[in-house]
Description:
The protein has helices at residues 3-34, 65-72, 77-87; strands spanning 40-47, 54-64, 92-102, 123-133, 136-144, 154-159, 163-165, 178-180. By secondary structure, it is an alpha+beta fold. The strands form 2 sheets. Strands 2-1-3-4-5-6 form a 6-stranded antiparallel β-sheet. A two-stranded antiparallel ribbon has the order 7-8. Strand 1 and strand 2 (54-64) form a beta hairpin. The longest helix is centred in the first third of the chain and has 32 residues, at 3-34. The chain is globular, with a radius of gyration of 17 Å.
Amino acid sequence: MDKQTKQVDKRSLVAAKGLAEVAASVARKAFGISGQVEALSLIVMNRVPTTGERLAEPEIALFPMQQLIQQYGKAAAPAAQRRICELCDAAAHIFVFEAWRVTLDQDKQFDDMSMGISNHPDRVEVVSILLEHRDGTIMNWEMVIERSGEKAKLGPLVEMEWRCEGAFVGVLNKQAPVVET
């Protein structure tokens, strides 16, 4: 990696970390309006995808995931997102989505996968912000406060260590469909 690429990569990581905070703010506003967050993807680009021209400073591109899924289909959307990241010479990818999380004690097992996480009695609904960078992956989430009686709201952004699996995990590295921090 040449000196210019290292400098751009360092700046892109700083930009990506700041963007995770911005993504949390956007998620909070969307959730406050509609009670949900539509999946979206933010890419820290180092190149103009149409020309291949290297950018002096990293730029941010936003992709509503529903649009990508409608255009390419649910099965092909992750591959399309990977290709977009390749064309942009992406230094970072941020994926914002709603999910269920189950945290188990070390002595507890989740043996009955037939019921799925969404039916697990210990599940927690979260809005996740998955930040993937060339140099490593940082995962954050915001917990959804219980939807009892009053309007639900999102909790604070908390950096967590957890295992994440899914089609859009490992977008910068197609060899890494499972990310563990």
